[in-house]
Specification:
Blueprint lengths: L6 E10 L5 E4 L6 E4 L7 H7 L7 E6 L13 E5 L14 E5 L5 E9 L3 E5 L9 E12 L2 H6 L10
The structure holds zinc ion.
Family: Belongs to the FKBP-type PPIase family.
Catalytic activity: [protein]-peptidylproline (omega=180) = [protein]-peptidylproline (omega=0)
GO molecular function: peptidyl-prolyl cis-trans isomerase activity
């Protein structure tokens, strides 16, 4: 069967940025499973994979709008160091949970650590990047009813 909506797909992938640096890869690990058509992966990749068969591979470039979003400069904020007291081992790239005025949580990462302030960034680390994937389709099967209900792949003995 081919990659189509509600299929469980296992793929190997290598992700590079515009500069050709490898950002992420499944090489040396198990192929990554996802359910096609359920937003498990970024939209630009999902549409490129539609119709592919097991054993096929392809190169896909995904623009930010169909990837992790465009970069919003206003999502970068400098906050006083005191606001983060209680967090040990603060380091650049660390993920933190923040809250908006309504108390809704959102993820930020540490961009810079200054003497008295910390710069935090609510952009996805790959926001604004054009993403260059090389993917190969390792396996395709029908999703089970539970998987479709939950919207994610169940593997091995996992049954959450
Ligand atoms: Zn589940």
């Amino acid at each position: 069967m081919t990659v189509k909506k509600d299929a469980v797909v296992e793929m190997h992938y290598t992700l590079k940025n515009d500069a050709g640096d490898i950002i992420d890869s499944s090489q040396g690990k198990e192929p990554m499973p996802f359910i096609q058509g359920h937003g498990n992966i970024i939209p630009g990749l999902e549409s490129a994979l539609e119709g592919m068969k097991v054993g096929e591979s392809c190169d896909v470039s995904v623009n930010p709008e169909e990837g992790y979003g465009v970069h919003h400069p206003e999502a970068i904020q400098e906050i006083p160091m005191e606001a983060l007291q209680g967090i040990d081992n603060l380091e650049i790239g660390m993920q933190l949970q923040s809250q908006d005025e309504q108390g809704n949580p959102f993820a930020v990462h540490v961009k810079e650590i200054n003497e008295k302030t910390v710069t935090i960034d609510a952009n996805h680390p790959l926001a604004g990047e054009t993403l260059h994937f090389n993917v190969s389709i390792e396996n395709v099967r029908e999703a089970t009813k539970d998987e479709l209900d939950h919207g994610h792949v169940h593997s091995g003995s996992c049954s959450h």
